[in-house]
Each structure stands twice: as C-alpha cells, then as structure tokens.
Amino acid sequence: MAETNRETIETDEEALRSGRSFVSLWLDKIKRAKDDEDKWRKDAYDAISVYEADDEKDVAFNILHSNVETLVPAIYNSTPVPDVRRRFSDADPVAKEVVDICERGISYSIDQYDFDAEMISVIRDALVPGRGVPRIRYSAKMNAGQVALQEVKFERWPWDKFVKGPARSWDRVPWVAFEHDMTRDQLVAINPELGKKIDLKSSGAEEDSGKKESDDLAKGLNRTARVFEIWEKKSKKVF
Predict the structure, then answer these.
(1) What is the pTM of this model?
(2) 48, 54, 210, 219 from 38: Cα distances, Å
(3) With bands split at pLDDT 50, 70 and 90, how would you rate the model's confidence at 203?
(4) Residue 53 region, left (φ>0) first, then alpha (ψ -120 to 50), else beta?
(5) What does DSSP say about strands 133-143 and 146-157: parallel, antiparallel, or unpaired?
(6) For 207-234, what is each residue's pLDDT tens digit?
(7) 88: which DSSP letter?
(8) 162-164 and 146-157 strand pairing
(9) Who's near 192: CB < 8 A, 6+ residues apart?
(10) What beta strand segments (E) does the chain contain?
C-alpha cells in the first residue's frame, strides 16, 4: 500500500511554482503509482514463478501452466482478417476506394511481422500476471526532410514495464508511462548531448519489487539506463 503521509499536491503548476523540478514531479507520480500496485506486482511475479515451475520440488503437476496453455488458443486461434466498411452504404465510388485501400493496408501491415506471436504474448500476460499490454506503434523514417517509409506495428509491451495514473476506469486514466532500458547508443540517438552524459547502471532490476522480466533484461551485455516515456492526456503531450 502507498504511504498515507506522503506529500501531496493540488496541481502540477503549484508544485512547479514551489520549486519542484518537472522531472522530480513525474518521478514521484510514477513512484506513487508503482507503490499503489506493489502487492499486486509481487503476486504477479509469484504467479509467473508458479507458471514456469521455478521450484520443481513444490510442483508435482503444474495445473496453472496447463490451464493457461489451454485457454490461450481458445481466446486467440487465428490471425484476424481486416474488415473495413463504410458507415453508410450509399453510392460513393470514392469512399469505396478509400475503404479498399485501408483494408489492404491493414492486411499488408499484419503480414510484415509475426502478429500472432505478439497477440499470444499479450494474452498470456493477461492470464498469468493479470495484465496484458498491447500497443500500436507508428514510426516514420525521414530522408532529406521527407517521409521515406511509414510503418505501423502491433506489439506486446512487458506488463511490469507499464505504469498508469490513478483512476477507477480506463477512460479516466490521466497518464500512462512505458519504461525503456536503453543502451548508450539508443540514448545518444534520442539526444546526442544528454545521451553521452547519462550514468549507465543496470536495467533497473534492483529497483523492482519482483524479478522475472526485469532480471532477463539485466542479463544483457550492454549497460543500460532506465528511461520513461510518458503520455499525458491533459496536455496531449509525450514526455
């Protein structure tokens, strides 16, 4: 549970005027959100440990693993087929062409990578730790100031690398944050000046309440730094 005596603020503007930095304000928000989920996150890591039978002596027959692997194909059994339709079926040849282009574009995008593997990973996360995080990412490669290649991909985001602001329903969530463990080269690519100065430690596994996925990231050869990608609803900005 989060500490009840932790400092609270009325507005972000008030906190910034009082001398708190923009970065420290967001780090406090993320820390509070993680504290609120602390017990659930520990239970989620325990569930993964049982699912993977980490301690084989205590697991005569892993019924959890068996049940999950039975449910996954029942929930997702085939690649979806895009079906784009017009809201109104009036005679409009231009609208029909637009619909066909959209449908073919989606179909082509799904075929360019292993869409099924990403979907199955999201579903398995939803069944075992209890949170599946799907994400649609748009990227554009530029050439001489012009867009040379546009790409849209569906991806599974690690459940323990996702943080959300406090709310009782999804439509009221004020912000979400995605954690990245970035190498020096990745940091420099984002910001050449700051990327060279950031202190690289581990992937941040020692800061997490559990182990599983964070430990896997920490096993890489390159040292990394933890970076938060924050999407705020109120300002409609990404930090």
Answers:
(1) 0.82
(2) 16, 22, 9, 24
(3) very low
(4) left
(5) antiparallel
(6) 554 555 445 555 667 789 999 999 999 9
(7) S
(8) unpaired
(9) none
(10) 133-143, 146-157, 162-164, 175-182, 225-232, 237-238
